[in-house]
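Re: your question about Flagellar basal-body/hook protein C-terminal domain-containing protein

S., sorry for the slow reply, the queue was backed up all week. Below is exactly what I fed in.
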Amino acid sequence: MAALEPVRALRTSTSFKADTEIAVIAAEVRAAQRKYTDIEVAAAHLHGMLDEVK
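Result:
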């Protein structure tokens, strides 16, 4: 769980966009930890799409 601590530290905003991005990052990290490659790739792709919208 230590890898998720920086993600939890980001949770200071109450906006939906920020919460969504944090959830996607958490999913990406958790998938990498558990070696779920297909989920990790999908989460990384979604994370990239969210970054483009900014």
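Residues 31 and 39 are 6 Å apart (CA to CA). The longest helix spans residues 16-33.

Happy to talk it through on Thursday.
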